[in-house]
Write a structure and sequence with these properties.
There is one protein chain. The chain is an alpha/beta fold. The protein folds into two domains: about 170 residues, HUPs (Rossmann fold, 3-Layer(aba) Sandwich); about 120 residues, TPP-binding domain (Rossmann fold), CATH 3.40.50.1220. The protein contains seven helices and 16 strands. The strands form three sheets. Strands 9-8-7-10-6-1-4-5-11 form a nine-stranded mixed beta sheet, sandwiched between helices. Strands 13-12-14-15-16 form a five-stranded parallel beta sheet. Helix 4 links the parallel strand 12 and strand 13. The longest helix has 15 residues.
């Protein structure tokens, strides 16, 4: 068994961005040929977007229905694994994959981990994922497993770059199960007050702001700076701020151009959610705060003094 199989994910006829992240993660491992499986009513519509650096082949499985159906997807993936014998299978940690991928792993006796935030190779795949409510990171390996199936958290891995040669295109005939469910309609989930994963500039505050009444001050400061307010977990646990604004392994993984952290010490789970930012600026009164280990710029200072200076400068 060798090579990596990435399972593309699409919705409403569009290839989801997480597919490019899966390909980027697979390429970074450098473990044999990299194939991308497209299980879809019309796989050919994604051909142009899958011409990416590192992709060796696209495996097309045509489904009878237009929309995702977990039993069809499960049988398609089981057939692909049996035919291709990959060492590693990568899918998104998403609502779709969670509906069938664990069953594939259980039925096939595969190694399995979900919500993976790091992956590397040491005589086989080794992964990092959140543990104990995001307070720790667990490292897992899979001894004795010829094939390992992993669900990778979206927004964590660098996406593959376009510009590669057109990969080989191959239609794969697998026996698909009959669907057991019927797609009725799409309904938009009520979003939180903001999507911090889309922000280019995040002003993030932690327990250092001391009091719930101070949240409004930093909301106003973020608005004046053209930033979006985000927070660390203690503020959400205390009920001061909605969970949609939480950064970290138990919150959102973000990659803004600028991440300004005020009063955040930098617990492991928080760092895992923001260390991919282009520029990290940290302000904390503790010179030993872990946040400084990932910051590009840092100041050992009182966050309220810094906030006051920023308000004056932005005025």
């Amino acid at each position: 068994m060798s090579g990596v199989l990435v399972v593309a994910e699409a919705r409403r006829g569009e290839l989801r961005e997480v597919t490019l992240e899966l390909i980027g993660a697979a390429k970074g491992l450098g473990q044999g040929p990299l194939s991308v499986a497209v299980v879809d009513h019309d796989p050919s519509r994604f051909a142009d977007r899958l011409a990416l650096d590192g992709v060796d082949a696209v495996l097309a499985v045509k489904t009878p229905g237009e929309h995702f159906e977990p039993h069809v997807a499960q049988s398609a993936l089981e057939g692909l694994i049996a035919a291709e014998q990959p060492s590693l299978v990568l899918l998104a940690h998403s609502i779709d994959s969670l509906g069938f991928a664990p069953a594939v792993a259980a039925r096939g006796g595969l190694g399995f981990a979900s919500d993976v935030t790091r992956i590397w190779w040491e005589d086989g795949p080794v992964v990092g994922r959140s543990a104990y409510g995001g307070k720790l990171e667990a490292e897992l390996d899979f001894p004795g497993r010829d094939t390992v199936l992993l669900l990778l958290r979206g927004g964590t891995f660098e996406p593959a770059e376009p510009g590669g040669a057109a990969p080989a295109w191959r239609e794969v005939a697998v026996e698909l199960r009959e669907p057991r469910s019927e797609h009725v309609e799409f309904r938009e989930v009520e979003a939180g007050d903001v999507d911090i994963t889309k922000a280019d500039f995040l002003l993030s505050v932690g327990r250092g702001i001391e009091d719930k009444d101070n949240v409004e001050q930093f909301e106003e400061l973020a608005e004046r700076l053209g930033a979006t307010l985000s927070v660390s977990r203690p503020l959400v646990d205390a009920g001061w701020v909605p969970g949609a604004r939480q950064v970290g392994q138990s919150g959102k993984t973000v990659k803004p151009k600028v991440y300004l952290a005020l009063g955040i010490s930098g617990a492991v789970q928080h760092l895992a959610g923001m260390r991919g930012a282009d520029t990290i600026i940290a302000v904390n009164t503790d010179p030993e705060a872990p946040i400084f280990s990932v910051a590009h710029y840092g100041a050992v200072a009182d966050l309220f003094d810094v906030a006051e200076q920023l308000e004056q400068q932005s005025g």
